[in-house]
Amino acid sequence: MKGHVNNVTYVRYAETARVNWTRNIGTHIDPANKKEWHSMVGSTGIGLILKSIKVDYKFPMTSPDKITVYQKLIPDPSGHLSSQSAFRLEVMILSEARQRPSARCFEDIVLYDYKKNRKTVDVPPFVMNQFKVMWEQQEKEAERWQQTITDIENRVRTLELESWDRTDAVEDNGSA
């Protein structure tokens, strides 16, 4: 059925992506702690609880569509997480059909100890280590892409200078 995607669906997309993100860290990035990462989406040990989510809708997505969800850890975990038991994710939900973001979410997530029935006092070391590595990778990629954008802008400016920004350039509006 073709129709409007209900707003609550975007929150479900973000939640599913967060679960996949956690499992993928354990499976592909930190297999030494796979069991701990996988148990974080359950309620048996240290788990993730969504404290709050803010969704900024960009356009009304319609079904059928395929989506891709990107997540970014914010802010720098070295200063932010060292004394807290929470972290934030910035989430972008991309419409494949329209090739643009359909929503942007900001998630506040609490690490919760289900055995003690309270927030964790400290972020487990295996989580902190991976978050630090992720943050460094995110920063390197941001620098790399910023340089790519600068290079493209410089090439466009060179083309402009060689064409319509020349002193002898004449605008051709066609014939009347």
From TrEMBL:
Keywords: Coiled coil. Residues 135-162 form a coiled coil. Gene3D superfamilies: Hotdog Thioesterase. Pfam families: 4HBT_2. InterPro entries: 4-hydroxybenzoyl-CoA_TE (IPR050563), HotDog_dom_sf (IPR029069). The keyword Coiled coil applies. The keyword Coiled coil applies. One of its GO terms (molecular function) is fatty acyl-CoA hydrolase activity. This is Thioesterase/thiol ester dehydrase-isomerase. It comes from Penicillium olsonii. The lineage of its organism: Eukaryota, Fungi, Dikarya, Ascomycota, Pezizomycotina.
